Amino acid sequence: MAERAKKAPGIADYRVSLRKRKVTFLDEIDRIIDWKPLERLLNKRLKRQPDAVGNPAYPALLMFKVLLLQRWYNLSDEAVEEGLIDRLSFVRFAGLSLDDEQVPDATTICRFRNSLLEKNLHKRLLDKLNHQLERGGVLVREGAIVDASVVSSARRPTKTLDLLPQDREESEGEPGVTVTYSDDSDAAWLRKGNKAYYGYKMHVATDSRDGFVLGGHVTPANHSDVKELPRLLEEVPLPRGGAVFADKGYSSRANREQLARKGFCDGIMSKAHRGLPLSGVERRVNRLISSVRAKVERAFGTFKRNYHLCRARYLGQDKVELEFHLVAMAFNLKKCWAMVK
User: Fold this and answer.
1) pLDDT of 70-122, one tens digit each?
2) Rounded Cα distance, 190 and 196, in Å
């Protein structure tokens, strides 16, 4: 494994350490989290290679921390590269030294992010982080709240008609027409109320006590919520007897039967049907479930307001799912910090 050795603190680091400074959010995260389990997973699965000119690769944990910095501060690859050059808090958190002549550039950051996708490490990293939060007593899996939210495509959905010419000897009539909406071919259209969206849908499960993200996945926007519940239950193991809360969009006989088979308490809201309105008891139960479901709605609000996940950064379903898991890890770490500080 060709990887840069971590430099011991130099003269510049020593001089800076003598300055009086305020402890930052990043310093607190470094104190709270044990990075060794994540580092072992990264080193085991990633074979770090020298760059194009033969320089050793940056440590995997350093690069993973850079991806977290991007999410917390909403930075592009180029902007986080600049931050690693002139922001002392970034340098300390990433584990760089002021004596380092180089920092990871934008291309290196992009390649590392893609390597997480190639090795399918983003889901395992979230699971590993959540297990650490569980051991620390911060995250408690009493139950789960499931919901979905739309993420617009990174490309503007411009309608394009491609005429497919036909050989007049083989066929007569009008040429074939192919309709495309953008170069983000994995995205799909969805109508909610009077508004249409082109993009994806993130299906998320949070814990029912504090709202930590337990897991989830991304589909094209036109996938129905009701059919995604079984997959969510497989992705986020819950203790037998735990409750699963969901809105009426997940209400179906198949979903309720699956919850019963797995030994989960049914917290799916009841849905009225034509000629069969809800009873008074069902309406009161729905209001109670809605009060619990507010935690997942707050998570979606934070994703879109603070982490700008109302619109995808990248093209393709796999890359949007990678971004979702990176944001989920950043979200859980900041929530943990807020609870224990």
Assistant:
1) 999 999 999 999 999 988 899 999 998 776 678 899 999 999 999 999 999 99
2) 6
Query: Domain spans of the chain?
Result: 11-119, 124-340
Q: Are 110 and 77 in contact (CB under 8 A)?
A: yes
- Encode pLDDT of 161-195 as tens digits: 454 444 444 444 445 555 566 678 899 989 888 88
Whether 290 contacts 268, CB under 8 Å: no
List, in order, residues 6 or more apart from 256 with CB less than 8 Å away.
266, 268
Angle, to 10 degrees, between the axis of helix 280-305 and the axis of helix 317-340?
100
Pairing, β 265-268 against β 213-220:
unpaired
Q: Looking at 14-59, which runs of residues are DSSP E strands?
A: none
End-to-end C-alpha distance for the chain, whole angstroms: 38
CATH tag, 124-340: 3.30.420.10
Q: Which residues of 275-298 are buried (b: 16+ CB within 10 A; e: fewer)?
A: eeebeeeeeeebeebeeebebbbe
* Cα Rg of the chain (Å, integer): 24
